[in-house]
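Worked Example 4.2. Consider the chain below.
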Amino acid sequence: MADLSPLPARSLSRVESARAQAERDFIEKKSGIPEKAMDGLVAEYIHRVFFAFVEEACKAGREGHWTAKQVRQHVESYLVVAIDGGFDEVHPSGNLRMGGKRYLNPFVKDLFRDWLIPKTRQSPEWRAYLEELSGIANSETGDAPAGDGRVEIPNAKPFASAGGPKPAGRQRGRRGKDPELQKLRDKVRRMHRERLTQRDMCRQLNKDKEPRPPAAAWRHLTWFEALTDRKYGRSVRKWLSEASK
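Applying the procedure from the previous section yields the following C-alpha cells:
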C-alpha cells in the first residue's frame, strides 16, 4: 500500500501490525468463500488497515505532530491509496496473470473503489474519526481539549454480507445521490450531444473549473492532464464515456 513515512516510527509499527493481522484473517476466511462474497472480504481487509492508519493519524494530531488540516489531508489521501493498494494485493481481479505477467482490470478496480469509498464514509468508524478531528481542531484554537482518540478498528461485518459493487449498468438509477456528481455527469452528457470530442470536453471542464469525480484516483490532476496522462488516461476516457450515456 502507501508510503506511510510521515507517521512516527511507533505508529508505523502499529499500522503494520494491524495489516498483518488483517491479512492473516483474510487468508483464513477466503478459503471456501463464494466468489460473490469476495468483495466484502476484501473490503473488510482494507477497512481494518485504513482505520488503523486513521487511529495513528489522530494520535499524531493530538500529540502536535500534525495539525487538524494535515490529519484530514493524510486521511483523505490514504483512503484512495488504501483501497487501490488493497485491491491490487488481495482481490482476485487484482492478481490475475496473463502470459506470465500480472494483469489488472482497471474497470473492476474503479467500480470497487466507487463502491467502497461511500461505504467507508458512512461507517460508524468514520463518524468517530470526524468527532476526533473536530476535537483536534478545537484544541488548536483553545476552544476545547482534543478527544481521547479512540477510533475503533472495525471488524467490517457489514461489508462481508454487502455483496460488493453492482455491475455498472445496474447503478445508473442511483446516480442522483450526489447532486454535484450528477450535475457533472449532466454537463458531460450535454457536451456529448453537442458532439464535442473528449479532449474538447476536458478543455471545457478545465475552463469551467469543474471538480473531478470524488472517487477518481486522478482527481489531483486537471481534466486535460488526466486525459493525456499515460497512467490515468484510460480511466478518464472510460468515465467520460459512461457519463455520456
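The radius of gyration is 19 Å. The CA atoms of residues 59 and 147 lie 10 Å apart. Compare this with Example 4.1 before moving on.
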